[in-house]
Amino acid sequence: MTRGSDYRLVVRRGSRCGGARVVTSMLTTGESRAARFGFIISKQVGTAVVRNTVRRRLKAVCAEALPRVPEGTDVVIRALPASATATYAELSADVNRCLDRLSQARS
């Protein structure tokens, strides 16, 4: 996702699941396209180097989770300050738990 309006729509209207390191919002649009992911990583997470490291880890987690997310779904993942010190495995566990929970609530 690239447009601010898309982010706002998902965060305001989508289902939400929170964890210790990330908050995940999911909205099904019904369009026939691949799922889209967006990331919100504020300066509270850390310096630019830390934020980019967290973003790269979250992108890798989402690339692995893409086959499990239904078509036409928009997902926004907001990193919390605790994500700065989290390992890849911890971020993966948080994101996957939230995606599974939101997918079950959706169906």
TrEMBL record:
Q: Which Gene3D superfamilies does this one have?
A: 3.30.230.10
Against InterPro entries, the record matches this protein to: Ribosomal_Su5_D2-typ_SF (IPR020568), Ribsml_uS5_D2-typ_fold_subgr (IPR014721), RNase_P (IPR000100), RNase_P_CS (IPR020539)
What EC number(s) has UniProt assigned to this enzyme? 3.1.26.5
Q: Which PROSITE patterns match?
A: RIBONUCLEASE_P
Keyword list, A-Z: Endonuclease, Hydrolase, Nuclease, RNA-binding, tRNA processing
Cellular component per GO, a single term:
ribonuclease P complex
Q: Which GO terms describe its molecular function?
A: 3'-tRNA processing endoribonuclease activity; ribonuclease P activity; tRNA binding
Protein purpose: RNaseP catalyzes the removal of the 5'-leader sequence from pre-tRNA to produce the mature 5'-terminus. It can also cleave other RNA substrates such as 4.5S RNA. The protein component plays an auxiliary but essential role in vivo by binding to the 5'-leader sequence and broadening the substrate specificity of the ribozyme.
Q: Which NCBIfam families match?
A: rnpA (TIGR00188)
What is the name of this protein?
Ribonuclease P protein component
What organism is recorded for this protein? Microbacterium hydrocarbonoxydans
